[in-house]
Specification:
The protein is an alpha/beta fold. The chain has helices spanning 12-21, 33-41, 53-56, 68-81, 100-114, 128-136, 152-155, 165-181, 193-202, 223-226, 244-260, and strands at 25-29, 46-49, 86-90, 118-120, 141-146, 185-189, 207-210, 218-221. The protein folds into two domains: 12-240, TIM Barrel; 244-271. The protein is built from eleven helices and eight strands. Bound molecules: 3-methyl-2-oxobutanoic acid. Its main location: cytoplasm.
Length: 271
Amino acid sequence: MSVNKVIKRVTTSALRDMKHRGEKISMLTSYDYSTAKILDQAGVEVLLVGDSAANVFAGFETTLPITLDNMIYHAAAVARGASRAMVIADMPFGEYQGATDDAYKAAVRMMKESGVHALKMEGGEEIIDNIKKIVQSGIPVCGHLGLTPQSIYKFGDFGVRAKEEAEAARLKSDALALQEAGCFAIVLEKIPAELATEVSKMLDIPTIGIGAGNGCDGQVLVVNDMLGITQEFKPKFLRQYVNLAEQIGNAAKAYVADVKAGDYPNESEQY
Ligand code: KIV
């Protein structure tokens, strides 16, 4: 008798339950099928197809140039690789900040063409009507407050946000507005740990921190950074678990040496 192993998908309500029972949520970015499969099998609960693909995949200085078509391509690959993890795709800059109808159509395109389970959008009150429309149509939305890289030219640098009282107060009211609009979670990026803890306690929905301290309900890192593939980016909050840049470099050097020496392929590696 064959036993069909049913893999249960992580859902928005599972994430909320995790918050309520105090179990931390793990999220990593992912941009391709093969890595998504490894991360999914490792037990990462949420895979974020971040628009950081613009930086770590395409080599752009900011996330602004990535297009909806680019994001759909990455998101579809990740969705095919994940059996258990929830897959969230970032909506790219310019696709959801304008007319509600345009934002809605872009969101529907992303859902239909990529197969992801939810979308993430940067911003608060200023995009709330668009988020409401998208959530009401049945698409789960994750918010993103604090350092929102799509607004980098407004901020001027990648420094810690909401250190001043006025910006912290605005962040808190944006967080409540996003929850009210139906967001199922909020990413808090690069804000003081004390503020992130306060926001996490205030909300019923989970917060996922990146550079926002240990009081968040979960954590997210850019996978290329935590694997040590990215070499030029080492912020204080980053924990690098392995130095893949060194390992890949050493493997490539060994391959070059083997090819040059006529040592690869050997007899067992040919037909
Ligand atoms: O694009 C991204 O990778 C992100 C994370 C840093 C949260 O938005």
